[in-house]
Design a protein that fits this description.
nine-stranded antiparallel β-sheet, 3 domains, six-stranded mixed β-sheet, Alpha-Beta Plaits, Thrombin, subunit H, alpha+beta, 32 strands
């Protein structure tokens, strides 16, 4: 495999380059040629001329491309240009598939695409995908592709565009697609593709909750309109510049143990925020911000790993958010990749990478795909990557270089520490607000919250749960005969008995005065009565202060589908009343006819 990159300055200069010896030799020695075109110019006439020139010298080449918000060549950012990446394969076969205008049927289109791919002859070594995430629901397309098992790597990016009045587009040859996707499938027994991604965005805000979402639309956060929350934290107006103002501040959601980012794209008149990828009701998230130090450290780590892989070509698909964050330092993240292998790519409106048959649409990340066909071509290279991390070197030589990134990193660290301290303090306050001061078990407020959670689970999953209400027999005599300090000691002892005799999943709390409650998830009436009898016996056989002998009465009830909290607790209270009326020191289960 051989890769060459070229920055188009004019059609005559391009033709001269294509007529050079190096192009002719590589063309004649290749089984297939992949040409990728990345351009922030949406001039179809100019792109047609470039494509015509390429095909005149390499008529069998597969040509795909995308509009961009910045081009990458030799690891450096270019703006307002056309970058051409040519990959010459010696024994790899290429198949290109277009998906045009799948809006409304993205999932089915994904199923059709993957069905075609897994049934192709030969070994599928990987797939490059370009798409228009602004005009189709890529997440649904990827969901459809997950209908088949596959393990080959999938990577790529979504087209972007500078001018909001123009549509982003991808293209296959001279066919331009403003709503769809293009897949390039690599068929080979010798081609090795290694993909890597990293984020570098860290939580900035406190934890927030998606309380209502509809597909790509985030409606409410913690019960408030989504835009109102963003505006309160970031002072971002709801106007035509919303995307530019908000793209540095994606929401960070943890899925499968990893942070993923979702970049706000627009806010509508209802105060809802639109995204390019799925948002799920109930998800916890933080508003995030990029940490330049983390981004650069991750970049060096991936570079060293790929150096050991010894690729022959590297493609980079990086989010526009990274350009916006790093500003003049943006090349520091990408430039050292070109020392490993020829590098090209573009800045995107979304990045794609797979893990097994799960393909993710990411935001704010960088996806790197390294290619090697066959064995390592240069086994005599140094065992370790040469130290040419220009960022590190420049900082050693000039301690004042890259000051913007370094200041931002320190401010982010300060904010994250303060946010963590506040969250810890709020968590402790919340915990204390639900704890009975005397017995150190849940108080009535906390019991009410847990009851409501159990009712929701009951309605959703039709699971059983039961409650026990315990009342100490003749407790008033303890306070009258021995005083309130002894009474308090008895109450604390009862709390300890309850905790010792209940499961970890049960909730033990003080309902009020000398009454206690136990909430038992996934517990039938029969099992709840058994648990109640266990508690009754433990209280009767315990030794209390100043030789006080204590007993208790318990009422038991199990939640029914038609119940609300009042009905359930009413039946438990009636059962408790029956236990007391019938002589105390006993368990009474709810009446069947109640």
């Amino acid at each position: 495999m051989r890769s060459l990159t070229y920055l188009v300055t004019s059609i005559p200069a391009l033709k001269d380059y294509l007529n050079s010896t190096v192009i002719r030799e590589n063309t004649s020695a290749s089984k297939s040629i992949l040409i990728q075109i990345f351009s922030s110019l949406s001039d179809k006439n100019m792109l047609d001329q470039v494509t015509d020139a390429l095909l005149s010298f390499m008529p069998g080449a597969v040509i795909v491309g995308s509009t961009s918000v910045g081009e990458i060549i030799h690891g450096h950012l270019e703006i307002g240009t056309i970058v051409v990446s040519m990959s010459f394969f010696t024994d790899t076969v290429l198949n290109a598939i277009e998906i045009d205008e799948p809006s409304g049927r993205e999932k089915a289109a994904g199923e059709e695409l993957i069905s075609r791919i897994v049934r192709m002859e030969g070994n599928v070594a990987g797939m490059l995908m370009l798409a228009t995430a602004l005009s189709i629901d890529i997440s649904k397309l990827f969901t459809g592709m997950a209908s088949e098992d596959f393990s080959f790597p999938v990577f790529g990016g979504s087209a972007g565009v500078y001018n909001p009045n123009l549509k982003s587009m991808i293209f296959l040859g001279k066919k331009y697609i403003c709503q769809g996707a293009i897949a390039v499938i690599f068929i080979s027994d010798n081609l090795q593709i290694r993909t890597r991604t990293f984020l570098g965005w860290n939580p900035l805000s406190k934890e927030l909750t998606v309380t209502e979402a509809d597909g790509l639309l985030l409606k409410t956060i913690d019960g408030e309109r989504a835009f109102d929350v963003y505006n309160r934290y970031l002072d971002i107006p709801n106007d035509e510049n919303f995307f530019n103002n908000a793209l540095e501040f994606p929401i960070l959601v943890k899925r499968n143990g990893e942070w993923i980012a979702r970049v706000p794209f627009f806010a509508n008149e209802d105060g809802y925020i639109g995204f390019l990828a799925d948002i799920k009701t109930g998800e916890k998230f933080h508003i995030g911000y990029g940490d330049p130090d983390s981004i650069l450290r991750n970049s060096y780590s991936v570079q060293r790993e790929l150096y050991n892989f010894a690729p022959e070509s590297i493609f980079i698909y990086a989010c526009i958010c990274r350009r916006f964050l790093l500003q003049n330092s943006v090349n520091l993240e990408t430039q050292s990749f070109d020392a490993i292998a020829p590098t090209a790519g573009f800045y995107t409106y979304g990045e794609f990478i797979s893990s097994g048959n799960n393909i993710q649409l990411l935001n704010s990340t960088i996806v790197v795909a390294a290619f090697r066909e066959g064995k390592e071509m240069n086994p005599d290279r140094p065992a370790a990557m040469p130290l040419q991390d220009s960022v590190i070197v420049s900082q050693e030589e000039d301690p004042f270089s890259n000051k913007h990134s370094r200041i931002v990193a320190k401010l982010l660290h300060f904010i994250s520490v303060v946010t963590l301290e506040l969250e810890n303090a709020n968590s402790e306050l919340k915990r204390l607000s639900g704890i009975d001061k005397l017995t150190q078990i849940s108080n009535r407020l906390r019991l009410d919250e847990i009851l409501q959670d159990e009712f929701k689970r009951k309605m959703r999953y039709e699971t059983d749960f039961s409650v026990l209400i315990l009342d100490l027999d003749h407790f008033k005599r303890i306070n009258d005969d021995y005083g309130h300090p002894v009474g308090d000691m008895v109450l604390k002892e009862i709390a300890d008995i309850l905790k010792a005799n209940m499961r970890a999943c049960d909730t033990v709390g003080r309902w009020g005065g000398e009454e206690f409650m136990v909430i038992l998830p996934e517990t039938t009436l029969k099992n709840a009565c058994t648990a109640a009898e266990k508690i009754r016996a433990a209280v009767e056989n315990s030794h209390f202060p100043v030789a006080v002998h204590m007993t208790c009465s318990l009422g038991v009830a199990t939640c029914r589908m038609e119940d609300d909290q009042d009905r359930l607790l009413c039946r438990a209270d009636i059962a408790l009343y029956d236990a007391k009326k019938n002589g105390r020191n006993q368990v009474s289960c709810e009446r069947d006819d109640s």
